[in-house]
Design a protein that fits this description.
With 369 residues, the chain is of the alpha/beta class. The protein folds into two domains: 59 residues, Orthogonal Bundle (DNA polymerase, domain 1), CATH 1.10.150.530; 293 residues, TIM Barrel (Alpha-Beta Barrel), CATH 3.20.20.70. The chain contains twelve helices and 14 strands. The strands form three sheets. It has a ten-stranded mixed sheet. A two-stranded parallel ribbon has the order 1-2. It starts with 7 loop residues before the first strand and ends in a 7-residue tail after the last helix. The structure holds iron/sulfur cluster. Iron/sulfur cluster binds next to loops.
């Protein structure tokens, strides 16, 4: 289903498109740059605040464009410094954005590294068995503006809350495109959103600090291999054999490891950038020692970094998070074999941080906002 809002969404417009709009509405080209400065540098939230734009043009902008396509509904702070934002889009759809704050060693409590995890679709069609996002199926793709607006909402929230935020600097350090939806299934909108986030006239956020995560869409990985891109790629592997992977990720039947690994290798060869393999540890599904050894072989073959993520329980699903001993035993195999890895212990367990869980709760009739 394609969503066509009544008004165009301003955060989905490039500078070039706004220059055409300025010309078509009788304004000089430089008005477009003034407008993007208000949106991305000064980050005001109403047309009235854009004081150097002529009043009649502000009225025209208001008639043609929606300024806030994603309304923050709920913000949940967890005990372990994860903050989850539930947002409502103009058609009433709900999406999630998660902020994960990790304290930085040696710089005191006031400075932490903040990663923002954004969504690219409402729901998801890929049906990974452990994931809350796929439980209600796919509703629609987000357009570029709705992807960008998630970051702008975070900026607006952080601008008022943190000491370090200044109007010229975004208040987070990394963006991971790993929330609800399969990002590469919404390829064109994602590419446009990244262009806006990265542009000097836009959020000016370095592409190397953006990671796009895919469940393994081989044709799109191949397409990215041929493009000049700066962002990083992560592959949600979650199983080191076809039988394990197919059990929990239906996508593996279409693109099994013998197709996925060569595509990933091609990407690494063409871009010369280290790939990340995401691996959710689920008890007695993929956390066995044998599976760890097979993961070592794949990671070494791809020169990849492995990100181990102990499973966050999803209500209604029977999968379990392995205990610390099992997690450590799995990690030790990677360590012994000198595979670079990180293990993300507890992040947002108490606020349903696993992707799609807060939305899932909010869709229930008894949910109170
Ligand atoms: S893990 Fe990602 S691709 Fe799989 S169902 Fe969830 S959102 Fe979709």
């Amino acid at each position: 289903m394609k969503f066509e809002p009544e008004k165009k969404l301003i955060f989905g417009e490039t500078l070039e498109e706004l220059e055409v709009f300025a010309r078509d509405t009788g304004q000089p080209k430089f008005r477009a740059k003034q407008l993007t400065d208000w949106l991305y540098k000064k980050r005001v939230q109403s047309w009235d605040q854009m004081s150097n734009l002529p009043a009649e043009w502000r009225n025209i902008l208001d008639e043609h464009f929606e300024l806030s396509p994603a309304k923050p509904l709920l913000s949940k702070e967890s005990r372990d410094v994860t903050n989850k934002l539930l947002m409502e889009l103009t058609d009433g759809s709900l999406i999630e954005t998660v902020l994960i704050r990790a304290p930085m060693k040696g710089v005191g409590q006031r400075r932490s590294r903040t990663t923002v995890c954004i969504s690219t679709q409402v729901g998801c069609a890929y049906g990974c068995k452990f994931c809350a996002s796929g439980l209600l199926g796919w509703k629609r793709d987000l357009n570029a503006a709705e992807i960008v607006a998630q970051l702008m909402n975070v900026c607006h929230q952080e601008d008022t809350m943190t000491q370090r935020a200044t109007p010229e600097i975004s208040s987070f350090d990394n963006i991971v495109v790993m929330g609800m939806g399969e990002p590469l299934a919404n390829y064109d909108n994602l590419m446009k959103a990244i262009k806006i986030l990265n542009a000097d006239w836009g959020l000016k956020f370095g592409a190397r600090r953006i990671t796009v995560s895919t469940s393994g869409l081989v044709p799109e990985i191949e397409k990215l291999s041929e493009k000049s891109i700066q962002f990083r790629l992560a592959i949600s592997l979650h199983g080191a054999t076809n039988s394990t992977r197919s059990k929990i990720m239906p996508i593996n039947r279409r693109y099994p490891l013998e197709k996925l690994i060569p595509a990933a290798k091609h990407f690494v060869k063409n871009h010369g950038r280290m790939l990340t393999l995401e691996y959710i540890l689920i008890e007695e599904i993929n956390d066995m020692l044998d599976e760890a050894k097979k993961l070592v072989a794949i990671a070494k073959d791809l020169h990849a970094h492995v990100n181990l993520i102990p499973y966050n329980k999803v209500e209604g699903l029977s999968w379990k998070r392995p205990n610390i001993m099992r997690q450590d035993r799995f990690a030790s195999i990677l360590k012994e074999n000198k595979v670079p890895f990180t293990i993300r212990r507890e992040k947002g367990h108490d606020i349903n941080a696993a992707c799609g869980q807060l939305r899932l709760k909010a869709e229930k009739p008894d949910f109170t906002r």
